[in-house]
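Worked example (supplementary).
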Amino acid sequence: MRNGRLPKGAHLRSSWSTRRQKKAERIAAARNFADGQILAQETIVQALETLVLPGDRVAIEGNNQKQADFLSRALAQADSQKLHDLHLLISSVSRPEHLDLFEHGIARKIDFAYAGPQSLRMAQLLEDRRLEIGAIHTYVELYARMFIDLIPNVALVCAAQGDRQGNLFTGPNTEDTPTIVEAAGFSSGIVIAQVNEIVDELPRVDIPGSWVDYVVKADRPFAIEPLFTRDPRHIHEVNILMAMMVIRGIYERHGVLSLNHGVGFDTAAIELLLPTYAGSLGLKGKICRHWALNPHPTLIPAIETGWVESVHCFGSELGMEEYLAARSDLFFTGRDGSLRSNRVLAQLAGQYGIDLFIGSTLQMDGDANSSTVTLGRLAGFGGAPNMGHDPHGRRHASPAWLSLIKGNSDVARGKKLVVQMLETYQKGGVPAFVESLDAVKVGRDAGMPIAPIMIYGDDVTHVVTEEGVAYLYKAIDLGERRSALAAIAGVTPVGLRHDPKRTEKLRRDGLVAFPEDLGIHPVEAKRSLLAAKSIEDLVAWSGGLYKPPARFRSW
Amino acid sequence: MMTPANRLDPKQLLTRKSFIELSARERAKALLDEGTYRELLGPFERLESPWLPMQGVVPQSDDGLIVARGTLSGKDAAILAIEGRFQGGSTGEVSGAKIAAALELAQHDAENGWPVQVLLLLETGGVRLQEANLGLEAIAEINSSMVALREHVPVVGVISGMVGCFGGMAITAALCSYLIMTRQGRLGLNGPEVIEEQSGIEEFDSSDRQLIWAVNGGEQRYAAGFVDDLVEDDVKLIRERVIEAFGRGVPCRHRSEQVEDYLERLATIDVTHQLEIRHFGRLWSKRVLS
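After joint prediction of all chains, the assembly is encoded as:
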């Protein structure tokens, strides 16, 4: 600009802060609904009709656990003449009103990660062309995109308490709130938080007020589900047999120190066998010391017997609050004493920081691809794929990671253990090992660019069934991999392909282990091995600090 | 009263043995003196229900009822243990006849100067619907035998759960000289699902676990004086309490004989107001009755 002219090719832009200006306009338009940063509960629908504009990208806090349900219910009551073509970003589509928004013509498009309870209706709306799917993500991916090409115009979040300056206290269920607020709050988006109560002094500040535009007191406390509670009474002997094989054949063999457990009765059985079976093998201190895990009540006995050194949590779990506060050596807690969780950081930890991920699946094909997507349902994946893969960006070594090195190249690298558990037959006599996953058909029918696979076979290092363990990572080629899997797939279509002679060789070569190869007698897999056999037992283990929700109480 | 399990240390928690977890046969074995267990009319006698196969239900060769003999604390004992995992512990023609016959045998022995301690392990939804009238008849026989037997020896009942004790067998439970429950146990004439079906979900929501246990659960039944002892789910503790109950001998007046007292209490209740569960314990408490 030497001679006062713009360089050739440069454009004149009148303003570089249009987003900020537009935000100021919205806030000015909504002044009648607000007293400072406090929005009135009674006029929340009109306030949303003013603060949200047609075509906006709206992040609604619908987490795996807590839900900004007051705000989502209010948004669903908006006039679709005023508010339409919204693009929703919801990590977990759990509430009926999330989909009412599409039926009422308020929202048009959705990017999400998980739709468990609403998966059936979601598939229906898609078929009726009332809903467009941007993509099905994993949690981390969806949040990543909120900072790249899916930056929200508005974020509707929830917290336990707020003050008049907009500071928020989330309590133990911090979960996704800081991330969503950051994405909107630092890109001139509007951040509205529903709180259970407005107070003068917060126990601690989880989200600073300067990130938040409005606080509104909800008509009732935010909805939350105890998703990670499994009643030990429903753990059966097959779960226990598989858990014993995991402990002996994987945790002990590879020296797994840090890990994540998916939720389910298989992994609950492992947690409850640590103080008993694993203890009798002398493994205390040698395995399972550091966890990225929601506070599973079934982990209590292992904690109380000194197995666990640290747990970082994605969220909290209903009923566990007092127990967690009383075990602050292990859990991340704030100055107020209560848990601080963080889904994105826990997902990151579960991706890069741990030796092993283990989870259950519903279906697996002959190449060990697996999915929980079944016909007629669009459930998504949540966070399992983040943890259920080998992150190629990992550079730190651990004994377990190194133990998966094959060959002796100068630049060999280790591998994270990705373990899938499944019984060869599901309830109702349906084989779990199939020629082609339902997910393939679902993906095709829904016009998805790729089939909704939860864990890809090439990421899976071990598969455990009631028949045995397949050490897939040891296979030298695809043929050997398939044979190892077939050897433990029972009498399913995949299992019937196995060749007994080849299986014997695979056992000798250590690619397949049956229970007897691991020194386990199936008759020893008894419920008496469980450190807790009921929710009552878990309460007793916690010294009465665990307060299970009513639906889990049998007393 | 109960030992609070919340105060046990990890070692105690790992070594204690759940009674609820056990099958009927294992329960009987666990309670009798070691090595004294023997079974009468066991599975090899193949006394099966003839009615179940006709209705497409696979029968069991002991019809879900274990008659065990042995000694308890050195004294002769007979245990009638219902297997809750077979047809919900329901009483059919065969299982009912096994109970009635065992009670009669014990009565005969007692009358001949050979007292046998009789223990019922109740885990039952009541009459087996597939055997309707025959099951009902069996319960009538059982109950008349109970009344005759308990004049001679105490009859003790244990309701540990998780099925609970409902229907006609709840009457049998009420006829026991002494009744012992866990807090997981439930005792009631009509099961929650039956009440809901008959009177609607507004009257009784059978999916509301807290409500169910507040009405039928062991703690409530103990507070209301319908059972004599509330015990933790622990084989050792339950065994101790059973022995203790037998040690008390035949009560001078059985609970089911206190008809006048109960009627009197019923008469004092103000039925113009909806009764609250939390007041129930006070209205019916054992202390008021005795």
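Two points are worth noting when inspecting this output. DSSP finds 13 helices and nine strands in chain B. The interface with chain A takes residues 4-8, 10, 13-14, 17-18, 20-21, 161-162, 183-184, 208-210, 213, 217-219, 233 of chain B (CB under 8 Å).
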